[in-house]
TrEMBL record:
Alphabetized Gene3D superfamilies for the sequence: Cytochrome P450
Superkingdom of the organism of origin: Bacteria
Source species: Streptomyces calvus
Entries under InterPro entries matching the protein: Cyt_P450_B, Cyt_P450_sf
Sequence similarity: Belongs to the cytochrome P450 family.
Name of this chain's protein: Cytochrome
Sample GO molecular function, one term: heme binding
């Protein structure tokens, strides 16, 4: 097979990627094909895999396209203060960056601990946390549903699932959102996460309970406490922000698209439809870093060198015209999108279900409690956080008829 000569790489930032990513991916595909040479911050080269077929190839072959960042051929040129070091770093002893047998052992343990979550308890607890958040805003008649709801709900539920006390929740919310939004300059958020996880693991080692941490500690595969602390931290990070963005992006769709207007007045049927459409069209994890080629190979007509970094272009693959042949909706009941990844390192199935319950329940409670919710600003003025990796709203200002909190107060 011949290879296409490498065109000039595309910087992976710029206003179009944030304002109209569908168009940005379409243009990249037209000019460069399904595997696009891109430049990350500091002109660091990588490949963005936008083709659905090529992405299957990459995620389905963990030996050739490894999750091990040690393979990267750019480490010598990466400065200590490179802004993406939090996402791509050499020593990450968590499930995400282990490979082969070690990864299978860690993944099996994590899946078993998440599978044992009782879906009824999960729903009930999500309703309770959602009610608390709505109590804080409902007497006002105005709110930012991203900052005051979507960005607070998933971390509270996940912290409870792991085994944290309710009092730990607000501190974890602040730490995680500061890290996600790049505000954790003094790394105090990172430190709080690490010390909180370490304390929880030690407490459950001494006295087990019915929670994710205790189940991981009791697993016969026997991970060390340190490994469990790292996997819990990764899970909280990998779970919170995409679920928060899933909630925010789905609410935006329901508030701006007439097809979903009816559900705002009590019908819950189209919540699931809106959520599925978001995973196809406006997915939280737009691009994921990544995989590293373990030897020279060819992909989508390009020559990939050993050690090259490949970014998983999940949104690009979801809108690949080769799978969306009529250029229209596949969304309905079709779940063949790439939004949870694919292959050995895909989002674990019970984690996907947990995210789904949190998002669907949270949106349901919100629409039940505030049925006449409406956008407070023109839809066109809504902005996204500027990231080529995660796609979420900066804020979602709404108005509604003020109602008393559940404890009866109308401020
Ligand atoms: C809307 C919500 C979510 C989305 C869109 C999402 C998406 C993803 C994607 C795309 C990956 C694959 C990364 C790769 O292939 O390199 C992934 C991995 C992962 N996700 Fe999720 N995720 C979500 C929620 C969650 C939740 C709630 C949890 C935990 C309870 C979780 C835990 C994980 C873990 C542990 C991995 C790493 C798996 C591994 O490397 O073996 N995710 N997720």
């Amino acid at each position: 097979m011949s290879t296409t000569p490498d065109p000039a790489p595309v910087p992976l930032n710029g206003p179009l990627l944030h304002s109209d990513p569908a168009r940005a991916y379409r243009e990249m595909r037209r000019e460069h094909g399904s595997v696009v040479p891109v430049l990350l911050d500091g002109d660091v080269p990588a490949w963005l895999v936008l083709g659905y077929r090529e992405l299957h190839q990459v995620t389905g072959d963990p030996a050739l396209f490894s999750r091990d960042p040690e393979l990267w051929n750019q480490w010598d040129d990466i400065p200590e203060d490179w802004p993406l070091r939090a996402m791509i770093s050499r020593r990450q002893p968590s499930i995400m960056h282990t490979v082969g047998e070690e990864h299978h052992r860690r993944a099996a343990m994590l899946v078993a601990a998440l599978e044992a979550v009782n879906p009824f308890d999960l729903r009930t607890r999500t309703e309770r946390f959602a009610d608390e958040l709505i109590d804080a805003i409902c007497p006002r008649g105005t709110a930012d549903l991203v900052g005051e709801f979507a960005m607070r709900l998933p971390v509270r539920v996940l912290a409870w699932l792991f085994g944290f006390d309710d009092e730990d929740g607000p501190g974890l919310v602040t730490a995680l959102n500061d890290i996600a939004d790049g505000r954790d300059h003094d790394r105090s958020g990172q430190m709080l996460l690490l010390t909180s996880m370490t304390r929880l693991v030690a407490a459950r080692r001494a006295e087990p309970a019915d929670d994710v941490v205790s189940r991981m500690l009791a697993d016969p595969a026997g991970c060390t406490d340190e490994e469990i602390v790292h996997d819990l931290t990764v899970m909280l990070g990998a779970g919170h922000l995409p679920t928060a963005d899933w909630i925010g992006n789905s609410l935006r769709l329901m508030l701006t698209d007439n097809r979903f207007a009816a559900s705002l007045f009590g019908g819950r049927n189209s919540i699931a439809e809106a959520m599925n459409e978001v995973l196809w069209e406006d997915t939280p994890n737009q691009n994921v870093a990544g995989r590293w080629a373990s030897r020279d190979t060819r992909l989508g007509g390009r020559l990939i060198r050993a050690g090259d970094l490949l970014l998983l272009g999940l949104q690009g693959a979801n809108s690949d015209p080769q799978v969306r042949t009529d250029g229209s909706a596949l969304t309905g009941g079709n779940h063949a999108h790439f939004s949870f990844g694919h292959g050995d390192h895909r989002c674990p199935f019970p984690a996907q279900e947990i995210a789904e319950v949190i998002a669907r329940t949270g949106i349901g409670v919100l629409l039940d409690r505030l049925p006449d919710i409406d956008l407070a600003v023109p839809a066109a003025s809504l902005t996204r956080r500027p990231s080529p990796f995660m796609r979420g709203l900066s804020e979602l200002p709404v108005t509604f008829t003020p109602t008393p909190a559940l404890n009866g107060t109308l401020a």
